[in-house]
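Lab channel / #folding
Pinned by the channel admin:
"Please post every new chain as: sequence first, then the structure tokens as a reply. Keep commentary short and put observations after the output so the thread stays searchable."

First post following the new format, from NK:
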Amino acid sequence: MAASCIPGRVTVYTVPGCPQCLQAKATLGALGLPVCDVDVSHDPGLRAQLMKLTGSSTVPQIFFNDIHVGRNEHLKNLAPEALEQLVCMVKKEPVPPDAPPLPAGSSVECDESDRGENLKRSGLRGSRRRWLRGHRNSFTGTKLVDWLCREKGLATEPSEALRNLILKLYSDYLSADGKSVDYKSMSQSPCFEHYCELAVQLQRVELMSLSREEKLAFFINVYNALVIHGNLRLGFPKNVWQRYRFFNYVSYLIGGEVFTLQDIENGVLRGNRKGVAQLLKPFSKSDPRLQVALPDAEPLIHFALNCGAKGCPPIKTYTPQGIDSQLRIAAEAFLKNDDGCMVDSVKGEVKLSQIFKWYKADFGGTDEKILSWVVDHMGSSQKKSSLKTLLSAGNVKSSGGREMRMESSHTTQIITAALKDVLFLEYSTASVMARYRSKAMAAK
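Reply from TO:
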């Protein structure tokens, strides 16, 4: 039976670039079912609707007509008989009135359409030449940023444009099962060329005027985009030493200052705290970048930053409006996964991601405070109830009895090392700069 002739509907609440969402849609598509994809990333109202319908704001959330199945893992764990019944129901029964309502006209589409019309009226579009090639109905990154800053008056607009471009790239080249990315094809995409042009314009952002919320959204988005940009241009770091160099030297020029990945994470978002195995704070007292740093470390950023390691949170994008709520949702989703937190009531054991060990100070500094923080940021679940029971039964010990163990969900750890005998590489095309300075070069 063709999908267009099926009376029922499968509704999937998703966000762009989400591997679990792609896996779920691929599974449903293979079943020959009509899938209605509801993107909740742009509309806080849809997030609120999702929470009301399911009791959770994490995605994907899957409905067969009016029956809520849950997330992708719940779909995969359905018994064959139960899945067959749901498929038959969708193929034979029309969508009932109490099924999840679809967004009328899609407010997101309207918003993008309005932006498109404004852009057309701006006079930016025209013909331009690059080398021997002509481009019609196009504009340069410089003109785009000028228009954004003039019309919107927001320093965060370049960041939003970047995050949308990098997320589109990620979505376009993520495999159907959500398990791999075709980075080679991504690096050759015209969209990536546009991204590179726009990334240069970050140097014009007025950082001093940003609010706390704008700083959080801006630097989280830039960090995640810079990791992908660096990987595309320089390749993935394959060992501890390469990772150290990557995170300490891959950088963007933002607001007239150079910000490496370490600077963004530990200098800005963690309130100028020492990073993993770092001896010094990123910014000295005389460093002008210190004025951009948050006054205090924000622990929720650890569930939004994606450094490219296996255990990192999925790539998402963030907006200043409701940023704290967005970060709490990211933390809840991370802790719901066993890679983030696993509770064994029988053994009286709690296993947490290595993130909680690396950044222990951000979560309270002691095992007890860390577990209390975890409980406060978990969604309602059996796991949360089990953890509460363990905590109420007595103090958590570091060994024996009730034990909290830090399990490494990342493939490698960053360690500090002396900068010596390293090949010099200066790469700044489109704004990614990786400075790997040799001992001889440093001596000059």
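NK: The CA atoms of residues 285 and 291 lie 9 Å apart.
TO: also worth noting, DSSP finds 17 helices and eleven strands in the chain.
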